[in-house]
Amino acid sequence: MGSVEVDISTREKYSAERAKRLATTNFAKRLEVSKDPSVRDLLQDPWADYDARAKEAPYLENGSRTKFLIVGAGHSGLIHAYHLIKAGFDPKDLVIVDNAGGWGGTWYWNRYPGLQCDVEGYCYLPLLQESGFVPQNRYSHGEEIRQNAEHIAAKFGLQGMFCTSLVVADWNESDGRWDVTLRRQLGPAHEELNVPFTVSTQFLITATGPLSSMSIPALPGLDDFRREKKVFHAARWDYDYTGGSTTDPHMVNLRDKVVGIVGTAATAVQAVPELAKWAQHLYVF
């Protein structure tokens, strides 16, 4: 293969931009959504049916013991579970927990208009041959990717306990097991269920990732702005406000609205064209 010549000024430009992205001062300009009361409401799961989850018999409760506890119901958690079952373990030996209300990981949370994977579905979607799932699009839309995750869980009888977060895990040397404290979050209508509980597991598998966590800049005046204007994160898209849905993003409620979107990376590349179709005016910051 031939070499590609890159002039010095271009290299210096990209090095300078990289240094900006990695600067610790930039990371400090982000709000910790789970800890900052001014934005904690943005953690609310718009997709979870809390009432339905509250009626389900939980796979785990205080004092439960299981062989495998997998934290994370996205692709990593699903693949771990599949290979354990393939190795001969009973699906009932596994429980997968996730703070989301269902399967899919980042593809559970992200449902913004235009959402699509930039890798061909036959390469990106896991366990297609094993589960029999056939992608309908060369580049799968977010809805199809989430459907694939749900299909895998149903195909292999996986046990998912949702709206449940890991609080702390301690190794119990005398028992040779992990003592894991979990906490359910089923909304304000079910406060009696939103309490920590501790379970014991022989194997603890963390299958979490960074892409389901929201990044919110610490903008001066954000509190005041939110009191006057509608603000939400792309990973918590509010179709009740914009109109439309994940399968039919006709955002008719934005026809008389001036909309601003902060960010110009992959999410914006996908969402901006859809917003531009409907907003009275769109600003990209």
From TrEMBL:
<dbReference type="GO" id="GO:0004497">
    <property type="term" value="F:monooxygenase activity"/>
</dbReference>
<keyword id="KW-0503">Monooxygenase</keyword>
<dbReference type="Pfam" id="PF13450">
    <property type="entry name" value="NAD_binding_8"/>
</dbReference>
<dbReference type="InterPro" id="IPR036188">
    <property type="entry name" value="FAD/NAD-bd_sf"/>
</dbReference>
<comment type="similarity">
    <text>Belongs to the FAD-binding monooxygenase family.</text>
</comment>
<protein>
    <submittedName>
        <fullName>Phenylacetone monooxygenase</fullName>
    </submittedName>
</protein>
<keyword id="KW-0560">Oxidoreductase</keyword>
<keyword id="KW-0521">NADP</keyword>
<keyword id="KW-0274">FAD</keyword>
<keyword id="KW-0285">Flavoprotein</keyword>
<dbReference type="InterPro" id="IPR050775">
    <property type="entry name" value="FAD-binding_Monooxygenases"/>
</dbReference>
